[in-house]
Amino acid sequence: MPYDRSMATMLSKLHALTITAAEAQTHNYYMNVGPAFADPVARQLYAEIASVEEQHVTQYESLLDPTETWVEQWMLHEANECYTYYSCVETETNHHVKAVWERCLDYELGHFHMAADAFRRYERRDPAEIVGDFSGPIPFRSQRDYVRQVLASEVDLRALGTQFVPKAHEDQASIDYRRQMNGDGSPSEAVAAGYVWTPGTELVSHGAATTTAVTTTLPANQGGVVQP
Amino acid sequence: MAQQTEHFGMNRTGVQMSPIDTAAMQGSDNAPIRGAPGDERALLDAREALIMDAGDIGSIPMPGSVAGAVSMGMHMLKGDRPQILLDKLGERLAFERTGTRLYDALLAKCDVMQGGPAGMTRDHVAAIRRDEARHFLLLKDVIESLGGDPTAQTPSADVTGVESLGFVQVLNDPRTSLAQSLHALLTAELADRAGWETLIALAGEAGQDDLVAGFTLALEDEHRHLVLVQGWYHDAIGLTPVPGMLPPGGSAGMPPDSTTAPTTSPDVTTPGPGADI
Fold first, then answer.
1. Of A40, A112, A183, B207, which one has the greatest count of Cβ atoms within 10 A?
2. Which residues on adjacent β-strands are paired with residue A221?
3. Does the beta carbon of B55 lie under 8 angstroms from any beta carbon of chain A?
4. Cβ(B154)–Cβ(B237) under 8 Å?
5. Which of chain A's residues have a Cβ under 8 Å away from the Cβ of B34?
6. d(CA B192, CA B212)
């Protein structure tokens, strides 16, 4: 369900915009870069990931209230850019990079005021209805522990309509879709199978064994087991 | 401006910079799973199927003129394989075009960078650049004389273009030093020499003695380039010349009128007389 534009706090709206923008950009990345590879396996992998990213875009943009007016959306977009650059300014310690964020923030503040003027003029509304105080910037720092915790607790969640449910209650439509789409296997599984991150790449752990020899002489990785 | 010598800095790409996180990454305590189950068989199967099913990279164009078609037909009647020769001529044409541009890029660096390798003057670089451009024009004439179209991209020209992408990236990166640029050019010159050797063998097999003679002259140019570039490269990284390897600016490697070039006083900043860039 989307947020309610008259009830949701500003930061909830901005967070929904941020995640939608991030997913849209990730989708664009995979769609743009994938076709540049000559390796068809890499192309397939990127096409698969792009398809998943497209689902994410759809999912997250569904959080946005479609009854927001265009000028309201515009103003929120500009506010979001200000908020994100402000967060970069607050977090960055390198003064060269910080100066870049400050300049971008200045530009976006100019854009925001232009949008806010349009909001006043064309909608006859006060921008303070939509934007106001917020608790603090986005903390840009390591989120490894949080990501691991989410992964551990949510990896087995599945979708049932708009709900997230345990694996056992997964929507049959999702199962049928995957069975059809991945009938011949999926590129991501082919690429990832047996892969274990090793400093210095897999040659360090596999030594001089060729790719083919690896599959015939080393036991298949069962997952959760670090190859010798 | 690019550093002329490699230096120690804030490089954190190695695992030794972060031993605690590296151990955590390799441990299984705080990760739900280490690695994905399975082996590389599915990946190999996918590649094999795709290779079996793949098409070709382009084709050799049919002659676009009557004279060209007659010339090509005559060669084929004699049992020659003009398509192989034309493909490889197209490859060398593409490579010499890129080679010319690589030396253009090196000249741009020479004009602004101080302290280049001993013996490497702007004149020397410009002379090699002229050789590459001359080879390009030689190949254009040869392809036309065989009834081919020198503006067509043959399959091997396409592939060599992809191979050469890295050279173009390295030479045109404003951060690369002269030593790094010369390393890329050394690799390119090694490939160029091998390419001319192949072309001479193909022309010889086809009984094209006049082509063999012209290509042999080009190969001699490439030998000179290789010796020069290797010498400059070694000097640029501070390597002392060893016996058997010509010193930078050695006479065997000199372009015309450069046999008196200094071997110790680098002069890469002043455009030399006669430079054609």
1. A112
2. B38
3. no
4. no
5. 196, 223-226
6. 16
pLDDT, tens digit (0-9, with 9 covering 90-100), for B185-234: 999 999 999 999 999 999 999 889 999 999 999 999 999 999 999 999 99
Q: A160 by DSSP, 3-state: which?
A: strand
DSSP string, A39-102: -HHHHHHHHHHHHHHHHHHHHHHTTS-TTS-HHHHHHHHHHHHHHHHHHHHHH---HHHHHHHH
- Domain B81-251: CATH superfamily is Ferritin, core subunit, four-helix bundle (1.20.1260.10)
Angle ∠(A118,A123,A125) on CA atoms, nearest 5: 95
Give the integer Cα–Cα distance in Å for B165 and A34. 18
At residue A36, the pLDDT reads 95
B30 Cβ under 8 Å from any chain A Cβ: yes
Question: DSSP characters for A178-206?
Answer: HHHHTTT--HHHHHHBT----TT-HHHHH
Cα distances (angstroms) measured from residue B128 to each of A129, A148, A173, B131, B144:
70, 57, 66, 5, 25
Predicted TM-score (pTM) of this structure: 0.81
ipTM above 0.95, yes or no: no
Name the residue in chain B with its Cα closest to that of A213: B40
- Nearest-CA distance A146 → chain B (Å): 11
Alpha-carbon Rg for chain B in angstroms: 24
CA–CA distance, B263 with B34 (Å, rounded to integer)? 58
B32 touches chain A (CB under 8 A): yes
